[in-house]
Write a structure and sequence with these properties.
heterodimer, A: about 150 residues, alpha+beta, Alpha-D-Glucose-1,6-Bisphosphate, Chain A, domain 4, B: about 120 residues, mainly alpha, Arc Repressor Mutant, subunit A, 3-stranded antiparallel beta sheet, 3 strands, about 10% strand
Chain lengths: ~150, ~120
């Protein structure tokens, strides 16, 4: 298991009208994943997954109008059905040259009453273990300040 | 991870630089106005050596500009360095918000189908 430290992360939550088991399956079964993961902006996407710790996955998004196909891929780090899945997320260089940094996606499904569950997704950039120091909290204010400074004429 | 080129700051360097409270405070002070290294150091209860180490992180990330006038080192915040970092956050956030919306729709739809059959 690689030891990594997040340097920045974002988190998105969603309450779903199903049990964790079903949400976990929809996230980890390629044929289901292909049906809902349409937000890569593509016309169609394909998902290949070798669902085991250390196994690889690759997502391919086909775009219309002669635009290049984009690829993202990585390796499964944690698979704990139906509650948790963790994998590296790396845009392939030609797909997204600015963002081929190593990052990790963690998705958890927590059961709620009445057959519902909460999905929490965290996407974090990670740094070298020897650089592990400090915490990520607080940097958003700096970014806001900078964005505001840049927006000023 | 492989070796990195120090000439070209990586996104990770920016976030790493921002990951320490002291360095964030330094940047905030320098965002307000450019300062001499010695003046900046006075705002912190730290040795000049430790201050220099923090500054190195910020410089490596491209967040600081240092100009030398005689013996004085002036520090200035370079806001351009943050653009790719804030874009990384913003665009991935948008991507996942969209993905989770369609994930929810998919679950609702297939819920409906499985109840019909």
């Amino acid at each position: 298991m690689s030891t990594t430290t997040p340097t920045a992360s974002l988190t998105v939550r969603k309450t779903l009208p199903c049990r964790p088991e079903r949400a976990f399956r929809a996230w980890t079964d390629p044929s289901q994943y292909e049906q809902w993961f349409t937000s890569c902006g593509g016309m169609a996407m394909t998902a290949e997954m070798d669902l085991r710790v250390g196994g690889k996955y690759r997502l391919t998004c086909k775009h219309g109008d002669g635009q290049p196909t984009t690829h993202v891929g990585g390796e499964f780090l944690v698979i704990e059905p139906p509650h948790r899945i963790e994998y590296t997320w790396i845009w392939e260089k030609e797909s997204n040259p600015a963002w081929n940094d190593r990052s990790v996606v963690t998705v958890t499904f927590t059961a709620l009453p009445e057959n519902r569950c909460e999905l929490v997704l965290t996407h974090a950039l990670i740094s070298d273990p020897e650089q592990r120091k400090g915490h990520a909290e607080g940097w958003t204010r700096i970014i806001d300040n900078m964005a505001a400074a840049m927006a000023r004429p | 991870m492989g070796e990195r080129k120090h000439s070209e700051p990586k996104l990770d360097d920016v976030f790493l630089a921002l990951s320490h409270p002291t360095r964030r405070r330094m940047l905030e002070l320098l965002q307000a106005e450019p300062r001499r290294v010695t003046d900046l150091a006075e705002s912190f209860d730290l040795s000049l050596n430790v201050v220099s180490k923090h500054l190195k992180f910020l410089e490596r990330a491209g967040l600081l500009e240092r100009t030398k006038t005689g013996r004085e080192h002036m520090l200035k915040c370079d806001n351009r360095a943050i653009a790719p970092a804030s874009a990384w956050i913003a665009q991935h956030l948008r991507m996942w918000q969209g993905a989770l919306d369609s994930f929810e729709k998919f679950i609702v739809q297939t819920n409906h189908e499985s109840k019909d059959h």
